[in-house]
Amino acid sequence: MKSFKILFLLIATMVIGLSKGDQSLLITSSNEAPTSLRGTSRFLSHISGRGITSCQINPRLCYLKSSASAGPDCCNNKCVNLLTDAFNCGRCGKKCNYKKICCMGKCVNPMTNEKHCGKCGNKCNNGTSCLYGMCSYA
Hints:
The chain is low in regular secondary structure. The chain has one helix at residues 2-19; strands spanning 73-75, 78-80, 101-103, 106-108, 130-131, 134-135.
């Protein structure tokens, strides 16, 4: 019984000591950078200004001839090609419906369109039709 009292007093002393202890370890200043790396690469966590590399602030970034740029146009802070992107066809935010692709900024069905039969720019000859994405199928 005496050992339980000593154990209880020891635990109570530790809890009281921790609750009255240095609270500065638990409170962080708003000026400090967050220490959590969730959602951020540990190599990029020290960089604070991402706005320099966004195309909304600097639209010329999309014109770079690199493999990182998907196209010359900026939509929703992403470089896209408005002539071929199915989620931004002709203008930002215009999505092509199911089974349609974006050709020259217009949503077309490549299974039946004679100017874009099977793929963009594949025009069927005169007198032939496009069926199942092939010219003169039947």
